TrEMBL record, chain A:
Any Pfam family hit: 4HBT_3
Organismal lineage: Bacteria, Pseudomonadati, Pseudomonadota, Alphaproteobacteria, Rhodobacterales
CDD domains, A to Z: PaaI_thioesterase
Every Acyl-CoA thioesterase-like N-terminal HotDog domain range: 63-163
Protein name: Acyl-CoA thioesterase-like N-terminal HotDog domain-containing protein
Domain of life: Bacteria
UniProtKB/TrEMBL annotation, chain B:
Organism this protein belongs to: Pontivivens insulae
NCBIfam families: unchar_dom_1 (TIGR00369)
Repeat keyword on record: no
Stretches assigned to the Thioesterase domain: 55-129
Keyword list, A-Z: Hydrolase
Record field: transmembrane: none
GO CC, one annotated term: cytosol
GO molecular function: 1,4-dihydroxy-2-naphthoyl-CoA thioesterase activity
Name of the protein in question: Thioesterase domain-containing protein
């Protein structure tokens, strides 16, 4: 009779995954400064940029700063890629998973370039972003990322981002 | 822009920058403006760090700096009637900025048509010959009255 190990209780699994994600986010001072956070459904991530007055770039309209929008897209792409690596390490168990649990994460992928397409102005309210990994190679990764506010069908900016994966 | 002496123009650009909350939050300082060009810097600050193990500033800071400097370059162009907003911006990160160093961006609006402004920009951390990032962007040309627009 083949006995597979009893699965861990759902709360334990959830707690471990959420803790790893929270730890990753809070370890980056810039993400704290911007007011960015991430929510997850399984391994899928949604970036959230909580509105704050200091994100405004055009006080007349008012509208979010283009640089802040670009930074949010870049950070969401970077976190999605990082989370993808962390997830695999966590799920495969063993020593690598223990390191993650102890807060010892792999090095961050480095941005090679980003192309931002500004489609409409960012309103003074929360923004959400989702990235899709179009290529995850050993050295290079390519992601598409979009951000929306009210209507997910109407992104207000999109970007194409390339990363150099940590070597070693 | 009405004829103004250079000191008054720089003073105006600094006042306009001081009215942009995100520029203030990042600590942006207008170093110089020309006629279709601008130089803006951001001092190193621990709150802007993107990689806690190295202390390197997050790429987003450089994105915001290059975008802001490029937009300012458009608005200082003698033929630009008013404000501007970013249509698209491509940034190449050539290397990590050294922790502790002020980052300075230079932008030049090299072509301005009735509706579109084309800008190139770069950022360095002390030596302009060894830039950390380079950018190319297209910006809108807004009619008079919209004023110090800073992207969408």
């Amino acid at each position: 009779m083949n006995k597979r190990p009893r699965p861990e209780p759902v709360q334990v699994v959830k707690q471990r995954r959420d803790a790893a994600l929270a730890r990753l986010t809070t370890s980056v001072p810039y993400m704290q400064f911007m007011g960015m956070r991430f929510e997850r459904r399984g391994n899928e991530l949604t970036g959230i940029l909580d509105f704050s007055q200091h994100l405004i770039g055009n006080p007349m309209l008012p509208a979010l700063h283009g640089g802040a929008i670009g930074a949010f897209l870049e950070s969401t792409a970077q976190m999605t890629l990082m989370w993808n690596s962390v997830w695999d390490l966590m799920e495969n168990g063993g020593e690598a998973a223990q390191k993650i649990e102890a807060g010892d994460f792999p090095a961050w992928p480095k941005t090679i370039d980003i192309t931002v397409d500004y489609l409409r102005s960012g309103l003074p309210r929360d923004a959400y972003a989702r990235a899709e990994i179009t290529r995850a190679g050993r050295r290079y990764a390519s992601l598409r990322v979009m951000t929306w506010q009210d209507d997910v069908e109407k992104p207000f900016a999109e970007a194409l981002v390339h990363f150099l994966m940590p070597q070693g | 822009m009405v004829e103004m002496d250079e000191t008054a123009r720089l003073e105006l650009a600094r006042r306009m920058a001081a009215a942009i909350p995100h520029s203030v939050a990042l600590g942006m300082h207008v170093e110089a403006i020309g006629h279709g060009s601008a130089v803006i810097s951001v001092p190193y600050d621990e709150k802007l760090v993107g990689d806690p193990t190295t202390g390197v500033v997050h790429g987003g800071v450089i994105t915001a700096l290059l975008d802001g400097t490029a937009g300012t370059a458009v608005m200082t162009h003698p033929k630009a009637p008013g404000g501007t907003a970013t249509i698209d911006l491509r940034i190449d990160y050539m290397r990590a900025a050294r922790p502790g160093q002020t980052i300075t961006a230079h932008a030049e609006c090299y072509r301005l048509t009735r509706n579109v402004a084309f800008v190139r920009a770069y950022a360095h951390d002390g030596d302009p010959e060894d830039p950390v990032a380079q950018a190319n962007g297209a910006f809108t040309v807004e009619p008079r009255g919209t004023k110090i627009g800073e992207t969408a």
